Amino acid sequence: MSKIRGLIRGAAKTTLLRNILGLLKPSKGSVQLSSKNRMGEKLVVGYVSQQVASFNAGFPSTVLELVQSGRFQRGKWFKRLDKEDKEHVRRSLESVGMWEMRHKKIGELSGGQKQRISIARVFSTDPDLFILDEPTIGMDVHSRNEFYKLLKHNSTEHDKGILMVTHDHEEIRHYANKHIELIRKEDSPWRCFSMDSCKELSKLHF
Amino acid sequence: MEMFFYGFMQRAFQASFLISLIAPILGLFLVLRRQSLMADTLSHVSLAGVALGLLIGINPTWTNILVVIIIAILLEFLRQIYRTYSEISIAILMSVGMAVALVLMEIGAGRTTLSVTQFLFGSIVTINKEQIWMLLGLTIIIGLLYLIYQKPMYVLTFDEETAFTVGLPIKMMSILFNVLTGVTIAVIMPIVGALLVSAIIILPAAISLRLSKSFYGVILNGMVIALVGMLSGLVASYELGTPPGASITIILMLIFAVITLAKYMLHYLKFDRLFNKSQG
Are residues B248 and B229 in contact, defined by beta-carbon separation less than 8 angstroms? Predict the structure, then answer.
């Protein structure tokens, strides 16, 4: 997998992500997602949807339980979580500043906090590809910048792919390698623009 | 306590104990998947299953299980079709189930001594050994399935899209869950009655939701609540001569009211103390 950090803006962004994930079936064309990662293992995708923070307000779960559930897909559906899993969970919660809140009920958190634990849940999975749909909604400027740094670190140090829908195109300009803009004028077909913010020229493969 | 010497009361207590273990598990998932009314639908459909069995002269329990399984699968498809208005499937099947039951019973009238009322209101005090064994088997199956699949089910109930993207077979899981709920209702329905099946499955989980903050806590607390509600309901029914299913439901409702009130008072008192401290 190539190291693309994408940023999509414009219309129908969520639809595009949902097609990539297979949640929607495209009426024309096809979506191809590598089934293996660079090490030849099964590709693991971590998805944070736009509405995930508005989940079931009454869902009875502590923050810790929810973030631990991110480890299940790492071969832990039927096994106990071990030390390594717990360590991942702790670091994920710490990276979004929610470790202290781990015994809180998720329904008691504020919108921004829910967003952060949803992100921590995906971090705890340690996926090869992050697909994030407006993950910074409800975050202030400071936490947004921290979050982007965290993503950048994941991408440069751990070779993670990140595909993100966002509105803060100015703030993220320094972080992303590639921008995708979806534009549609009435009565015209979709057009897709790639606005490279880095030196290398790249083609779009959607 | 002379009531414990009667065989029928012993069986009633055994059945209540087993139902108390199953109900909160299914109930919690039903509530969280916004399918609380599905239990009600399936219990109405269940009546049709019983009527069919009585009409063609087969043990109604088996025809019932079969009919409920078919409907439970159908429900999942209807839920997919009317994604935004998932209650529609419930409304359709509930009325159709009841209608079919009434028609079948009218056709079969005279051929059987069993009456609709027996199944509408249930009779926990007339259950036989076979039903207890069936209930025991079901409890073991549900307990095992829960222990094995608790993690996938947690993710599925948290968010279906998340469950899909992590690669869980969400359609299959939903259908199997519906089927299991259906079978449980088919077994419990003759005991507690079609009208009260859903109350007994949903109420303990609903009460427990207000008490615990962790997923597993809700299920454990739910079992305790169900046990207290069912056993005391049974005793009340014996002492006062009231219908068992209805007595159990009313007691569960009272527990709900007391807990809600107690929580409110606690909150109020704590708030009050903090307020005084900040002033002094």
Answer: yes
Do A120 and A94 form a contact (C-beta atoms < 8 A)?
Answer: no
Gap from A18 CA to chain B (nearest CA, Å): 10
What ipTM, to 2 d.p.? Answer: 0.80
- DSSP E strands in chain B: the ranges are none
Contact present, B172 and B156 (Cβ < 8 Å): no
- Per residue in A41-82, pLDDT (tens digit) is 788 888 887 766 556 667 889 999 999 999 998 888 888 889
* pTM score: 0.84
CA B205 – CA B210 distance, rounded (Å) = 9
Q: Token pair 């480890």 is at which residue?
A: A71
pLDDT confidence bin for A184, thresholds 50/70/90? low
- A191-196 and A178-183 strand pairing: antiparallel
Cα–Cα distance, B65 to B138 (Å, whole number): 12
Cβ contact, residue pair A72, B155, below 8 Å: yes
Contact call for B32 and A59, based on CB within 8 A:
yes
Q: Return d(Cα B129, Cα B12) in angstroms, integer.
A: 10
Give the pLDDT score at A188.
61
Question: Which residues 6+ apart lie within 8 Å of A145 measured at CB?
Answer: A171
Residues in chain B: 280
pLDDT at A38: 72
Position B119 scores a pLDDT of: 79
Closest B-chain CA to A17: B165
Note the maximum CA span of chain A: 56
